[in-house]
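Q: Predict the assembly, please.
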Amino acid sequence: MGSNRKVVTIVGARPQFIKASTISLLLRKKGLQEIFVHTGQHYDYEMSQIFFDGLNLPKPDYNLGVGSDIHGKQTAFMLQGIEEILIKEKPHLAIVYGDTNSTLAGALAASKLRLPVAHIEAGLRSYDRNMPEEINRVLTDHISTLLFAPTKTAVHNLKRENIKRGVYLSGDVMCDLFLSIKDLLQSRRKQVLERYGLKEKKFFLATVHRAENTDNQKRWKNIIDGLTILAEKGMQVVLPAHPRIRKLLTKKIIGKIKIIDPLPYLETQVLISSSKMVITDSGGLQKEAVFNGTFCLVLRDRTEWTELLSSGQVVLVDDSIEKILSYAQKSNSRKNVKIEKYFGNGKSSKKIVNTILKYLN
Ligand code: UD1
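A: Predicted assembly structure:
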């Protein structure tokens, strides 16, 4: 079934490799022909290839190698490359994920060629147009044909923008992936903790990569001061460094905070579940903290994943040193949040692929 149908998957940034790993496998199992396009937005080994090696992702059929640049130029390179591929490959549908420049470029190139676009993780909104991701999300949703919303809030957000056709409440594909590896974590724990010289529940896992935090001196200083004070108080702080922050890491910071390379998927989950708390500005990590039953401080003033706030396991601390310190020093009991209630029962990718198949047939 479906073997004469061809889809093009367009990805380019780390979170998209993780999300695509759940869908690509199923597309192929169902006999669809998938052309896999990597824009090259992320290119360091730890930001890209490591996920292809670890998550059963197909080797890309095309890598556009766009690399880093200012937004317009980066997106323009992608548009040009993707358009050429779509014209050559003549697929029946394009699939894009999330909210990066690769998402927008894929959706725009496809929709201008009148190709249907499936957007996985549709309907998320921060209602902050200062974020490049928000612009990417809004534009992508408005030119998509099939919109797979991970949560009820996302469906509601789309309705507010009068997008009602083609909207499916699918659940979250990252939740699928987590549930599929959850039982592996315990067996990997000892080895991963030893590799990084860490002790169970004796460290904070921190990540900072959003432009709104890294490119704003005052916010960056506050966040780093908060983390440094925590470290000075005797609690280890581990920070896998996204390339965006490499140039910001001074000797003083490196002396206090344990800086490590970006981590592969499974190791990330082990460290989240073994940490005392996660402190992050990442959308994916705040969700994964809740999946793992770990308390999480979010270094933003809002979140697209509002369900997490009602779970009681996630708190917005923005760039407030006081809030970081006061929450981090509270003892937080583990809570097992019913993640199925918000993010689906691990069958979101199946739902998505079945809907795509139905649409194509
Ligand atoms: C992008 C997404 C963001 C997502 C994040 C996940 C956009 C607008 N933003 O942000 O939504 O949360 O990916 O990580 O698409 N760099 C390297 N090596 C790499 C990749 C990047 O050194 O492999 C450096 C470059 O200096 C580059 C900077 O990181 O200028 C930023 O990379 P970029 O692709 O612009 O966006 P991200 O910050 O990764």
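The radius of gyration is 20 Å. Residues 13-15, 41-44, 47, 68, 99-101, 132-133, 209, 242-244 surround uridine-diphosphate-N-acetylglucosamine (CB under 6 Å).
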